[in-house]
Amino acid sequence: MDATDREILRELTIDARLPFRELGRRVGLSANAAAARVRRLQADGRILGFTIRVPASADGPSNPERPGLEVFIDLRLRPDVTFEAFAASRASGAFPEILDAVHLTGSYDYLVHAVVPDAVTLDRLVRRLKADAGVAQTVTRLAMRTPPPTS
Q1: In whole angstroms, how large is the CA radius of gyration of the chain?
Q2: Which of 24, 54, 67, 150 shows the smallest number of beta carbons within 10 Å?
Q3: Residue 115 falls inside a structural domain
C-alpha cells in the first residue's frame, strides 16, 4: 500500500460514492487507474465494503427516514468463546441488525452498533447474542440523536 492507496482510502472514507473519474482527479490518476486500485484494495481486504450512514432521529419509529432504535451494545464474551468464534457468528449473517462491531480494549470485548425497529426486537437481539454468539454480559445504550455532519 503506497501513498496513493492511502489517499484513495481517505477520499472514499469521506465519500464512498465518489465516481472513479473524480476520485482519479483528486489523487492524480486516470479514472481507469483509480478503478483498478479500488478493485485491488477490495481484493486485498483493505476495503471491506461500502455502506451508507443515515442519521439517527430523536423522533424514533415514526420517522420514515430512520425507523426504529439505534443502539450501541457493549459485549463481554464468555471465557470459553474465542474472538474468532464471535466474529464468525457475526459474519454468518445471523445478526442482520448489527451494522458494525469493534473489538476493544477495556472492560468489554466488543462495541456493537445496531438498528432495531423496537424494544421487543432489541430484547430478542440481546438474547440471541447471549444464546448463539457466546456473549456473557451486555450493556445497551440508545442513541438519542446524531449531530449533523460538518462540511
Answers
A1: 19
A2: 150
A3: yes
